[in-house]
Amino acid sequence: MYLFENVRAVTPEGNADWLLTDGARIAQIGLGSPPDLPDARRIDGAGGYLLPAFIDVHVHGGDGADTMDATPEALRRMARFFAAHGVASFLATTITASGEALSRALRNVAECLGAQPDGATLLGVHLEGPYINAKARGAQPADAVRLADPAEYDEWLALDVIRQVTVAPEFAENRAFMRACAQRGIVVSIGHTQASYEQALEAVQCGARQVTHTYNAMTGLHHRAPGAVGAALTCDALICELIADNLHVHAAAMALLLRAKGAHGVIAITDAIRAAGMSEGESELGGQPVYVRDGKATLADGTLAGSLLTMDAALRNLRAATALSVEALAPLFSQNAARQLGMAQRKGILRAGYDADLVLLDSNLHVQMTLAEGRLIYHAAHEGLARADSVG
Ligand SMILES: [Zn+2]
Questions:
Q1: Do both 361 and 331 map to the same domain?
Q2: Are residue 161 and residue 100 in the same domain, yes or no?
Q3: CA of 212 to the centre of ligand 1 (A)
Q4: Residue 234 maps to which CATH number?
Q5: DSSP character at residue 67
Q6: pTM of the prediction?
Q7: Ligand 1 centroid vs 49 CA: distance in angstroms?
Q8: Which of 63, 69, 245, 271 is catalytic?
Q9: Is 345 among the domain residues?
Q10: 132-191 pLDDT tens trace
Q11: CATH number for the domain including 26?
Q12: Which H or E run includes 93?
């Protein structure tokens, strides 16, 4: 049992002063003085924020490891790194690659699903590509981009490990894949796409309900051709991912997205790669060399290659960009993803009976502690802030 006191515990009903866990669940939340429980481990939050721990549904890697490494060690390493940045659960995200490489990565995640030692919980895979538009590939390797083919993807779906897919909906073959995914309850997200506004809306009829890194690698907003961005901004059926690193999207465009969608229409993601948390220099993404300089990861031609972002830094950036409160921004970091993933009855908000997925932040929004289903997976006082904040 953990008793968090002297905190601003952010709940949908307003802020509370203390929160008590019992095993893997939240037991009680309250105002005023906490109960006197001799058995509970008391945590003094020093007036900081207690939020539902972050859920990152779009993250390729971190701390030198990548989903495509397809080893249990890589996933463990990632999970520990994410925990230090407030994340209690994540989707290991793949990149466009050969069928063999993707099958390996998917099977590896299937074998490692669930709680990682001293790390965040692995919820499944976000399959980003290979069924995208090569003309909007971003940093996805062009040579492996292809149309969806059931001869390939039926086997992947049978593994029952994919929770989200990023697809370009402007191809009929891909729309068949989207329908197959939607039928299985997989979150279908449109991205790396040249879809027009009209095609993006048609995608909703094929099961799309999310937009992958909104603004990036898609048709932009023109007032006579509103593009995929126009559909993202105006269609309530689409929830919008956002990379809030101040590099992928201008602060004003982030603020615009929040105004158009509201706090329940946006999901903060990192899209981080293995270089996140590492010293600058050369790295790798999808078999391509990546160069990391001045907090920016790019391919040789200057294309942004994922990010070095962490979820806590995204919260700090979004607060600065939008002037919204931490309370108002909280749903972007947990609740909206939980709802999309069908886990809204267990995760995403602070409420008695919900999973004890918690992040304690100081008033500057630096992570002090992370719990995943009641397990202590990060404690700054134990591990030192220097490392946790190295990429903040
Ligand atoms: Zn992408």
A1: no
A2: yes
A3: 7
A4: 3.20.20.140
A5: G
A6: 0.96
A7: 31
A8: 271
A9: no
A10: 999 999 999 999 999 999 999 999 999 999 999 999 999 999 999 999 999 999 999 999
A11: 2.30.40.10
A12: strand 87-93
Is 56 considered catalytic here?
no
- Please check whether residues 166 and 279 belong to one and the same domain: yes
How far away, in angstroms, is 243 Cα from ligand 1 center? 10
Q: How crowded is the C-beta side of 85, counted as CA atoms within 13 Å?
A: 30
298 alpha carbon to ligand 1 midpoint, in Å? 13
Centroid of ligand 1 to alpha carbon of 289 (angstroms)? 16
The reply to whether 77 and 123 lie within a common domain is yes
* Model confidence pLDDT, tens digit, residues 188-242: 999 999 999 999 999 999 999 999 999 999 999 999 999 999 999 999 999 999 9
Q: Report if residue 67 sits inside a domain.
A: yes
The rounded Å distance from CA 246 to ligand 1 centre is 16
Look over the chain and give the mean of its residue pLDDT values, rounded to a whole number: 96
